[in-house]
Specification:
Oligomer: single chain
Number of domains: 3
Largest sheet: none
Shape: flat
Length: 307
């Protein structure tokens, strides 16, 4: 007889995150967890006390992932824009986890209270705003912070609704224009507004390059992370996830590619997607279950078809 698998808190939380990822916050039920873990409800309630206890712990687990991924945006340049784009990308890449995190648990007293409680990163943002845009007055820095967060939140919620898809380059353009517009308001009255409005060189190294940040952010997708860390054959059902990230990142689908290049096969498109996601030939071979030589030849054929 096989030994029963111990249902630990870690396994329950991992299953809970998977349930929310696939079906949204409403999918997190005791029955759903029992089915996924092949256990009885007592194992879950013994660990967390109630299903609400599981939900609270799952929300905190999701927030840990959110804080890590969104916080990493400050390492981009300029940092505040990088943070805003990392925030929106998290919503695009993990829409159900984002919804769980942003769901208000109590009635906020104001929009600022909501932002401080659920979005966070105020101190880091104000520091980045001061360093990048030279706003020394705390009132001015706070104005820019809250206004841009409202813009970013609106874009993020638009993305999670699935009704108005945006790509990372489009998000970069929208955030950049809003930063300039709000800075213009803050500096209103100056004779020469241009000197107060950072252009494409804002920050010590230059503005965010849309495609550089694209590859930084897409690399945070949980499936892409797994495949880059330990390359393995990609199952057919996993291609749907990769095509979703491809669509969000490049505003393309396999269907739109075939419309532009009718000669493309399913294999061509998969090679194309993996190449855009920065997988080298040796890893593409593992992911596709073919030899490196076959990958190289396939890439050559693909290049000829795209010309």
């Amino acid at each position: 007889m096989a030994r029963p698998v111990t249902v630990t808190k870690e396994r329950i939380l991992s299953a809970a995150i998977d349930l929310v990822r696939s079906g949204g916050p409403s999918a997190l039920t005791a029955r759903g967890l029992c089915t996924r873990l092949d256990c009885g409800a007592n194992a879950i309630f013994s660990a967390f006390g109630s299903i609400q206890g599981v939900r609270d712990a799952t929300r905190e687990e999701a927030r840990k992932l959110y804080r890590k991924r969104v916080g990493d945006g400050f390492m981009l340049n300029p940092p505040f824009k990088g943070f805003g784009m990392a925030f929106i990308w998290f919503a695009m890449d993990e829409p159900h986890l984002f919804s769980l995190i942003m769901e208000a648990q109590t009635q906020p007293t104001s929009y600022k209270n909501y932002i401080d409680t659920y979005i966070g990163f105020k101190e880091e943002s104000l520091s980045a705003i001061t360093d990048t845009f030279g706003l020394q007055e705390e009132e001015d820095a706070e104005m820019l912070y809250y206004q841009l967060i409202l813009v970013a939140l609106g874009l993020a919620l638009t993305c999670t609704s699935g009704k108005s898809p945006l790509t990372i380059p489009q998000v970069s353009e929208i955030l950049g224009k809003n930063v300039r517009a709000f800075l213009m308001v803050i500096r209103a009255g100056a004779d020469d507004r241009e000197k107060y409005i950072p252009g494409a060189g804002a920050g010590p190294v230059g503005d965010v390059d849309s495609y550089a940040i694209l590859h930084t952010l897409t690399g945070q997708n949980h499936l892409l992370q797994q495949l880059h860390t330990v390359p393995r054959y990609i199952q057919d059902e996993e291609w749907a996830e990769l095509e979703r990230v491809f669509r969000n990142s490049f505003n393309h689908t396999p269907e739109s590619l075939r419309e532009t290049y009718p000669g493309l096969t399913k294999g061509d498109i998969r090679i194309y997607i993996l190449s855009l996601f920065q997988f080298p030939v040796s890893e593409q071979a593992i992911l596709l279950g073919i030899s490196p030589t076959s990958v190289t030849k396939a890439r050559q054929r693909l290049k000829a078809k795209l010309q």
